[in-house]
Structure formats: structure tokens, C-alpha cells
Amino acid sequence: MASAFSYDAVGVSVLASPVASPRARESEFYYTLVFPNTRHSRAAGRTEPERVSYQHAVTLLRAVTSGGKEREKRAVDEFRRAWECKFRCARPAPQDSVPFVYIQELLREVILQRFDAIPGLSFVAHVSADERQLLLSLRPSKALLAATADALKLRVPAAPELDPGERYWAADPSRGQREREPLDKIEVQEELYRLFLAGKLPAVEAQLFEGESAAMWSRRLRALKRFSDPEVAKHLAAPPPLASSTLPFKNHPALQYLYQHIDSATAFSDGDDSAAAGSGGGSPFRVVDKIRLTKAIVDAEFDCDALVAQRVLSHHLCAHTHHTDGVDTSVDVLRFQWGSLLSPWRLYRQGLVGLLQALHSQPLVHVRNYFGEEIALYFAYTSFYTQWLQRLCVAVAVLALLQSWRLGTETAAGSESAGRVQALFAVAFCLANCAFVQLFVRKWAVRERSLASDWGVSDLKDSRQPRPQFRGELERSPVNWRLEPHYSPAMRAAKRCASCVLLLLLSTAILLAYHSLLAAFRGSRAGLQGANALLAVVTKLAGMPLVYVSTRLNDWENYKTQADYDANLTLKFALLQTVNSFGVLWFLTFLRPFLSSDACSEAALQLSCREQAAALLLTMLALDLVLALAELRAPLYDLLCAGAHERVRKFLRARRTRLRKADAQRRTLLGVGSATNTGATTGITAGHNHDNTDGNCDDERPLEAELALAPYEGVMLDYAQVIVNFGFVTWFAALSPAAASVAAWGVAVLQLRADTFKLSSATQRPFPAAKSSLGGWLLYLRFLSLTSLLHNAALAWMLWAECVAPAAQRVAHVHDLLALRPAAPDAQLLLLASETQALALFAVFALVWVLAGLPDQRDRAAAARVGRARQRERFLETKFMHSVERVADAVRAALPPGRVFLNGVHRYVVTGDKAEEDAADEVFDELRRRQLRVLDVERRIAELRRGRAGVGALSVEVVRITILPVVDALTKAVDSFVQLRLQEAHAAEDEADAGGTSAAAAKPANTSVAKKNRSPQWHEKFEFPLASLDDALELSVWDWELLGPHRRIGRTSLLVADVVSRTLAGETEPPAPPRARHASAATDAATAQLVVGTFELPIEMPDELLRSLAAADLVRHGPPRLQLRCGVQLQELGALLATRQRLRRRHRRRHDGPMNAMEVIVIFELFKCVYVEAGGVGHRSAGHGHSAAPR
Description:
By secondary structure, the chain is of the alpha+beta class. Helices cover 55% and strands 10% of the residues.
């Protein structure tokens, strides 16, 4: 249907790779759980096995179960029943204990049963070659993937033919007019059938679907025609390329044409996928999307990290992909063209990039499609950082050349003049460094937003799914009134305060320890060099303990979403790493010179504090450079020895083949070959392959080869290594500009090459997490940018005051100036001059920093492009998805021909003919059945009322408001939000013991604030529990005020009964009784869909606000209206109440007109029969019906 979803990326040609790898997609499983083999543990034979009590096992189970306290309770009940079944005992006591291996087996069986109960989830299990591990590989079917993606609102690529761009619509202005015209149903059916016969449409889409409105099928047919239109293809192929768009996935067959189907039909072999979402067997999911969805299915049941911590699981991972197509690349291609040391040289030889660009260029599109947005964003930042450090090195080289030229002219003037020139150029570098840092952070923020827009993750922050590790009580959300796990904000705030105190204490302890170490070796230069080397090593070794402390504190604070968890973890670790890496340098540079005038001028050292700090800085950067070079050992060894290893393996394989053939010929000549020997040999070969002497187990057991690799530790440490070096440059590079800049650039280049090899060859495949920004690290970069202004200005002032200022205003040491004890006789004048110079210098730095932070033309163009892309996505989503009408058809052409139907009931005029008397008998039978049904409904309602059963839930989506008046006269705009409140009203006939009508106001719910928008759009959903079908939804439109109370603009209301009558057409059948629906509960839950309808409600507002609306606004938008999309989910009691209301309305409509004598006699005889069969209740119902009849 749609064109292939392909990317253009520098340096990676996935279709013509020399190592395109061979594994077919049918054998791919997207996630693997590794269990310990308990049989092997028992066979190992421990003398005293570890025993675990039932109470401890329950605690363990609660720790690994996802979904809150209620899910934990159900899991404990399942575990108790499994315990009783496995050990054949009564209800276990808390002190009952069994060996821990049995607990592992029991939990493994529970996990397998839970996965087996999920429809569409297939898995295979096998034992590892060493029989120590059990590997469970999972693969969901396409139907399960589609249902999970719909629940998670996964955004997938949209077909570009939906909106070919402005050039296409401008080429023929009449196209837009034809796009809005609805098409006839018969015409659409015929056109879809023609497209199917032409081979342009799969059979599953060549039909009109249930609930598809005229607007929906018109839009779908026109879009399908554009897919095969050559003019559309020409517009899409013309430069500049159209920006890609993403849409949230919806598992509805009428909407599958919206997405690019990038997966082949052979990807799945499950038998139930024929009715799943997709076009012709395809799906819009990449491999990374399938891995995320599979992990989401697993996380909905169990917390894998907790299972590993409790020793139920040994490991869990997503396997590497060995399949290459137009979108999904393979690990073999990445190893060859991205992870190798020769990859930059290959890019340069192919003419794709320049020589300097080859050192930092990255194929981000393919890295993102294989490793996910989080890894791709890390390499995008590292590449961007390396490129800008390269520019800084060029600027430093220019300053160094100017300094050398100036020193050559000042040599005759003496050493004092040369020192003044050096200090002057150091001040210039401080100013350039301050501008560089601010410019770098600003440009990266623009680059980050552009990447997020191109990758379709700009709205990723809106996802508020709870983490599997989150623990909380189930409570109703104040936003949408749904049951969600909730944790006390006061408790989290208290834990945050405690964490801050612990972090401050730990930071103080680190500073005191480093200060003591530095003071112990301050006696000589050799001791100082040894102390610097020791400090550099200790700061590197302290990285992992600081990660552990940060993680434990963050876990203790119990954050709900993964975004909040990652941001707080990053800030904690960044704070500790800042103290760990920069604390001593900051002390030597800024604090120690102010302690005393002779603090850094010991006779044995003859070094100033800045020179000591510069020595420590270069030592730390040199250690980083050495460690980066050490990480290149593995890629260098792979480059030099990979070919030799491959030749040795081929030689051993060929030699083994020759030996087998020679042995077979010898056995044939001697006549010793037999069926028994052949069978024995075959059995060994088909078993564990004990004859594998060449070590070629990677080809036969790829998953076990990946298990042998080290797991990836996450991007936090990689970010820390790169950004800490950036901190060295921003804060302290002025101490030694040339050496620090070149060393930082070298570390970045080497780290980039080492990380590419590590991810492609040396570690397991990390989970492809979706990220839209650096998160907490971006905040840390802004912090470094702001503090670089202070640090560089302070360093520049210190150099100026001691070396560059005129001799009459120069001070011997900054400590003398701050202590008000200058060496010059005129202290007040010198102090005033120094303060003026400091303020002027800081003003210059602040001005440069502010100017560097202002967006330029390119930034504004990039922001406009991102804004247009997001506007286009919102337009496509509103046009093709939010405007979908899923209201059921009110009338079906399933009535018998030749009869008259009024309001759904037979109405015949009886005149005495034999044929009409037969029709009267039919009327009699029909009315009798309906009256008996009313009696059954009344009895069942009374039973459910006594059992306090629920009615159902009202689902509301606030869509938009057509136009609002100007409320704020200053800004000529309005900041609006909608407040929703369900007004409960229990009528007298529904609540017999209420004695009248009582109303109860439920807790209100508010939408978000749409700022400065007179036609706001929200698309926010809410859910309210219903107490009666007579409830009313009260809606108020408010103007938000930052200070003072909010102002109400207007109000409107909607009756629940109107929603029921609008959305539930035909007979509203109540749910099956408990016995009948127990067996099909899972199927009903999986197939039920909420039927919704669109309501446009007029907003009642004061006359002065209505008069303030301009005539042009009223002509264009009409009067102010609030658009809602509402639906009801009725339980058994609610469905019965809806049935009763409908039957009453039909009863009233049936008696609105005059009846002839024959009809009166028929109804009277009917009521007599009903009274005889149903007793008193029938008498009351008949009397009620008789009293309601017109005269």
C-alpha cells in the first residue's frame, strides 16, 4: 500500500553490505529471560542447601510483582495455590520452609503460567550448552503487539501520502475542496473493490468497517488513491524532502492505512494474525518497537530487575538482530561500517565525509533504528561535542600563534612584559571560552529539539506510565479519576530532604579527604606530582561507588515514572561527580589563594596556586587520555587478529571434515560400519555437539554467545565521562588553554571510537529506550554554562589584577586586596580602582555570555521547522484520528419486507379482515413479550439495587472550543481551562428509599491550561463513575489567573441519558450473568470497545462577554461551542436501566396518538393475561400502562 519506509544515512548502506547477515526474521525472538537451571544446582550436591520460609517467599513475590498492592495480593493468592499443589499440603504456615531451589522452580512455573495465559505470546525454552541456564525467548504475535501499542499510545511513522505537502495542494486548488466533499457509500465500496482487483489494496482493507462514518471512508478512499498516484510520488520525491511525521497507533482496522507498513508479512507465522491490524500482513513496527512492546508486556506482569536481585532470574536481555532491510539494519553491518576502527577511513575513502568530519561523523539514523533513541542521542551529543571541541582547538591555535608573535616582539622588554602578554592572552581565552560554552549549549539544545522532532519523540514527556519498580496504593487520579498507584508526596518530599542531607555530608567528606591527601604531599614538587597522580586515580575509582550511592538513594525515593527517576538519578550523580572531579581544582584555584598570601608560595615548590591547579588538571586529562587509549585495545586486537582467527577457524573446520570423511572411508573398507554406530554418532551430533573442537559455537548458539558478553552498564557513565571533561574545559581550561583543549578533544575522539566498538561487538545489546532529550544532563550543561561565566570572569580578574593591570594599580596577591591590606600606600584609591576593574570585567563577560545565548537566524529557522512539523502532526492527528466518529448506526436494514413499523413496534389498523386479524394476533404476541420483559428487567434491577451494584462509567474527551471572547484586555488573549463535574441525581423511581430527588456534587476535574489561544484544543480524556443514568455532566470554562482567583467565562451541561441514547443504538443488552460470563471474561475484555459520539454544546456566558465577540469571529466560528467526545461503559445494572428507559419511551410514544377500538381491546386482553401470569407486579405494570394511555 505505502512505499517502503527507508532512510538515507551517511556511511551505512544496509542493502549492499559485504557482511549482510543470514538469519531470517521468522526465527527472531525479541526478549529473553535467563533462569538458573535448578536441576544442575541440585546435581551439584550442596551438603546444606539454603532454606527459605513461606513468609520470605511471599515477601520475595511481592517485590517482583508489578502493578501495585492489588496485583501483589492476587499474585500471593496464586502463589499459595501453586504451593499447595506442588507440595500437596494444606494452607501453608508462615514458618514453613523449603530449599531455595524449590522456590526458584515454583516461581519459574508461576511466571511461565502467567506468560502462557497471555493470548498471542509465544515463547521457546532451551537449556544452555553447559546446562547451567534455562533460556526463555519471547515473541508476541502481531495482534498482541498492536493491542499493546494502542494501549501505550506508541507513535509510529505516518504514510507521507496522507499529506503530500503544500506544493501538491497548491498545484491544483480544487483538490482541497474535493477533499472535504463526502462520498457515497455504494461508490466507495465499488472503488475499494476495484483497487483490490487491481492489486493496489489487500483484501482486509477492501471493505467498509463497522462504525465507519461517511467522513472516515471518504478520507480513507482518497488517501488510498494517493498511494498509487504518480503525481503524488513525483511531489514526494522532489527536493527538499518532506518532513516525516508520526501518529499514535490505534488498533482499528479502518485506520491502518495511516501508517507506513515497514515490516514484511513473513515476520509472523501465528495463525491468529489474519484478523490483526495491518495491511496484507505488514505492521508499522520496527524491531526496536517490537522489543519495547515485548518488554512492556513482561513488565506488566513482573519486574525483571527485581527477579534478578532475588536470584529468580540470572539475566534478561534483548538479542542482536541479524536481519537487514530498508529500515532495520543488522549488528553485522554496524560492526563493519560503524564499530570498526577503520570505519572513519572507509567513510573518507568513499567520499561521504571530509577528513576532519570522519573523526566524529555518526550514522545516527541506523544507530537509532537499532539501539533506540537513548543510545542515538548519546552518540549525537558526543559527535556534536567532538566537532565543537575541534573548533575550540582551532581558536586556541590562532590565539597561540598570536601569543607567540607577540612574545617575539616583547622579548627585548624582559620577562615581566612576557608574563604580561601571556596573562593578557589567557584573559582573552577566558572571554572566548565563556562565549564558546554558552554557544555550544544553545546550539545543542536546538540540535536536540530537531532530532526529537525528526525521530517522532517530541511528545514523549507526555507518557506517564508507572515504572515496574514503583510501589504505591491504588487511588483515583484527580485528573482522570482512574485507579492508579499513588505514593504520598509528603513522604517523597521527606525522603528527598534526607537524601539532600546525605549528599551534602558525602560531598563534604570527599572534599576533606582530598584536601588531607593534597596537604600530606605538599612538601616538594615530586610529592606534589605524586599527589596529583594519586588524586586522578582516586577520582576515577570513586565513580562506581558514587553510582551505587546515587542509585540506592533514588530507589529509596520511589519515583513513579521513568523520566522522573532518570532525571533525579542524573542530578544526584552529577552533583557527586562534580565534587569528586572539580572539588580539589576549585579549592586550589579560587579558595586557597584567599586563605593567606603565602598559601601557595612555599620555597620548596616555587609554584603559584594556579600553576598547581594547572598541573593537577593536566594530570587528570592525561589519565583520561591513557584510559581512552587502553579502551582501544579490544578494537585494535579485533582489527589485527579477526582475519587470522577466521582463517584458523576455517582451517580447523576443513580439517575436521577431512578427518570425518577419511574415518568414514576406513570404516567402509573394514566393514565395521553398522546401524548402531551410525545411530550413536547421529545421536551425539544431534545432541549437544560434543565434537565441536574448532570452537565455532557462535554460529550454532548465537544467543549463548551473546550471554557470554558483558552487559551494557547504561549511558550514565558514558555521559559522565564526556561531560566531566567538558566541565574541565568550561571551568579550568584557562589555566592551560592549549594543552587542556587538545587533551579534551583527544579524549572525546578516542571515547567515541571505543564506545562504537563496545556497543557493536563487546557488550550485549542494550534495551532500546526512547528518549527525547538528555534529561538531567541538559540541565547540568546549563549549570556548567552559567557557572563558566563566573569561573572565567573570576580567573580573568585574578590574572588582570596580578599581571595585566597598570603597575600603579597592580597587587602582589589577591588575598591582600580582599583582606584590605594592599602593599601600595594609597589603599583606598587602589581598592576603588580594583573594584572598578572587576565590575567592568564582569560586565564585559556577562554581555558576551548573554549575546552568545541569543538565537541567531539558523536557530530561528530550525525552531520554525520543528514548529511546522509539530503543527503538521497535530493537523494529521486531528483530521484522521480525533475526528473519527465511532457512533453505531441508528437504523439497520434488517427488518422483514412488506410491513409497517412505527418506533420499532408493529402498528396495524384492525378492520375485520381475516388477514388483519392474524396481524392483530402478532401485535398481541409482540406486546405480551415486551411487557413480560419489562417485568424481568424490574425484578433484576431490584436485585442489583439491593446488592449495591455499580452502574458504569462515563468517558469524556474534551476536544476544543470554537471561539472564546477576549478576557484579558492587556494581552488580548485568554488562558482557558475546562472544569468538569459530574452532578449525581437519584430519581425517586430509581431510589425508592430516598423520598425524593437528592443531588451530590462529585469532585471536579480540570483540563490543562491552554495559554493565549482563543480557539483552544485539548484532546484530554476523563472518566467518571456513574451513580445513575439521570446524572448530568456540568462543564465550566474558566480563565486562568496566576495571581488571584480564576474567572469563569461560561458554563454548559450534558445529560448522561443523552450520551446513552446517542451512542448505544438498538437494543442495549445487559451483560451476561456471573456464571455465564466467568468463562469468557478475558475474551470480552479483549474485544470490547468503547462507543463514543461527538457533542457540540453551546456555552452560556454573560451578555457582556457575548457582545465583546467580533462579528468576524461569529461569522467564521459561529457562537461559542464546546466540543466533547463522550461514551459510556455500562455494567449490568446500567444496561438494565438503559433498557428500562428505552422501553418506557417506546411505551409513551406508542400511546401518543389515538387508537381505534380494536387496539384498545387487544391491549386490555394483554394486560389481563399479564396479570394472570405475573401476579401483583403484572397488575401494577398493567395499571401503569393503562394510566399512561391517552384518552
